[in-house]
Amino acid sequence: MSVVDIKQVSKRYGQTLALNNVSMTIAQGEFFSLLGPSGGGKTSLLRSIAGFVEPDEGSIEIDGKPMLNVPINQRDLGMMFQNYALFPHMSIADNIGFGLSVRHRSKAEINQRIKELLSLVHLEGYGERRPRELSGGQQQRVALARALAPRPRVLLLDEPLGALDKKLRDEMQIELKKIQREVGVTTILVTHDQQEALTLSDRVAIINGGKVEQLGSPREVYERPHSQFVASFLGNANFFTGVVCGQADGMTQIRLPAGQVIHSSHGAGRSIGSRVTAAVRPEKLHAAGSNGPGQPCNRLSGRIAHEIYAGNSITYWVEIGAQQVSLTAQNNTAPALSMGAEAHLEWAPADTIVLD
C-alpha cells in the first residue's frame, strides 16, 4: 500500500490544456475515483501517474519518491484496462503469471501466486482455459488477478467495467470492492459512470476542463455539491435561481422569479439581494400527502406533465410556471400521481443546497 501525491500537475496537448494545476493526495489503501466527462482530464491524470505521459508542470510522488522520468516498468504499478488486454494464446494461469515471469521470479513462486489469485477471484480450476472460453465477467477477474500478481504498490483501473452489461457490471462492482478491501492495495479508478464511482470509492475527485471541481467522500459530493456542474453531473438535480430575500434562524430565504420563497439551511452569509442558484435532488422532493419529511418548510405547486416509469421508481415531471421540476418516488405503496393532476411538492430546507 502506498501514498500518491499529485502536486500542481499541468499537461498540454498542443493548444489543449488537459490538466490545469491539479493537486491531490491519495491515501494508503484508499479506493479513489477520478470521475468526469470525456475529455475532462481524468485519463490524462491516470496516464501521468502510470508514466505513459510526463506532466509539463508539477510533480507526482509515490511514497515520497518523485516519479519524473521514472520508466513505467520501474514504478511498481498494476494496471487494468477496459478491454482487459489478455493474451489470447496463453492459458489463464500464464496470463496471470506473465508479470512475474518477466520479472524472472522462480517457477515455484509464480505457481503459488497464480494459485492464490485464482482463489481470490473465484476462478479455481480455470487455470488451463483460454480467455475465449470465459465470460466477460470472468475475463475481467483474470485481468484483475494479472494486475495484482506482482503485488503492486498502486493499482490503476481505466474504465475496467465499461465493457460489461449493467447486471454484470453491478455484480462486479461489489466483487471489485471486496477484493480491493481484502488485498488492501491503494487503488485509483478512472470512470465516467457516476453510480460506479459512488459505489466503489472511499473518495471521489470530479474533474472537468482539466480542473478538480470537487473532492470528497461519495456522500459529501452527492449531498453537498459545490457547483451546478457537480450537482448535474453526479446524478440529477433541480435548480432554482432567485434572490436572497432574508436570513433568519439559520435559514436563507430565496425569492424565485414568480414570487415564491424557498428556504435553505445552507447559504449563511449571503447578502440580501444577491443572486443565487440552489439545487434539490429529485428524491428529496415529496408529493404532499405521501410519506415525506416531517414538517416540510418548502412547498411549490404545479401540474404533472409526464412520468418515466423505471420499475423500482417513478420520476414525475411537474410544471411549475415556466419550469419543470422532477420528483423521483419509490414504486411502493405511495399513491401514483395522475397525468395533468395538480401536485404540491414539499421538501426540507436541509435539502436545498445553495451552490457556490
UniProtKB/TrEMBL annotation:
<comment type="function">
    <text>Part of the ABC transporter complex PotABCD involved in spermidine/putrescine import. Responsible for energy coupling to the transport system.</text>
</comment>
<dbReference type="InterPro" id="IPR003439">
    <property type="entry name" value="ABC_transporter-like_ATP-bd"/>
</dbReference>
<keyword id="KW-0472">Membrane</keyword>
<dbReference type="InterPro" id="IPR005893">
    <property type="entry name" value="PotA-like"/>
</dbReference>
<dbReference type="InterPro" id="IPR027417">
    <property type="entry name" value="P-loop_NTPase"/>
</dbReference>
<dbReference type="GO" id="GO:0005524">
    <property type="term" value="F:ATP binding"/>
</dbReference>
<dbReference type="Pfam" id="PF00005">
    <property type="entry name" value="ABC_tran"/>
</dbReference>
<keyword id="KW-1003">Cell membrane</keyword>
<comment type="subunit">
    <text>The complex is composed of two ATP-binding proteins (PotA), two transmembrane proteins (PotB and PotC) and a solute-binding protein (PotD).</text>
</comment>
<dbReference type="InterPro" id="IPR017871">
    <property type="entry name" value="ABC_transporter-like_CS"/>
</dbReference>
<dbReference type="Pfam" id="PF08402">
    <property type="entry name" value="TOBE_2"/>
</dbReference>
<keyword id="KW-1278">Translocase</keyword>
<comment type="similarity">
    <text>Belongs to the ABC transporter superfamily. Spermidine/putrescine importer (TC 3.A.1.11.1) family.</text>
</comment>
<keyword id="KW-0813">Transport</keyword>
<dbReference type="InterPro" id="IPR013611">
    <property type="entry name" value="Transp-assoc_OB_typ2"/>
</dbReference>
<dbReference type="InterPro" id="IPR003593">
    <property type="entry name" value="AAA+_ATPase"/>
</dbReference>
<keyword id="KW-0547">Nucleotide-binding</keyword>
<keyword id="KW-0067">ATP-binding</keyword>
<protein>
    <recommendedName>
        <fullName>Spermidine/putrescine import ATP-binding protein PotA</fullName>
        <ecNumber>7.6.2.11</ecNumber>
    </recommendedName>
</protein>
<dbReference type="InterPro" id="IPR008995">
    <property type="entry name" value="Mo/tungstate-bd_C_term_dom"/>
</dbReference>
<feature type="domain" description="ABC transporter">
    <location>
        <begin position="4"/>
        <end position="234"/>
    </location>
</feature>
<dbReference type="InterPro" id="IPR050093">
    <property type="entry name" value="ABC_SmlMolc_Importer"/>
</dbReference>
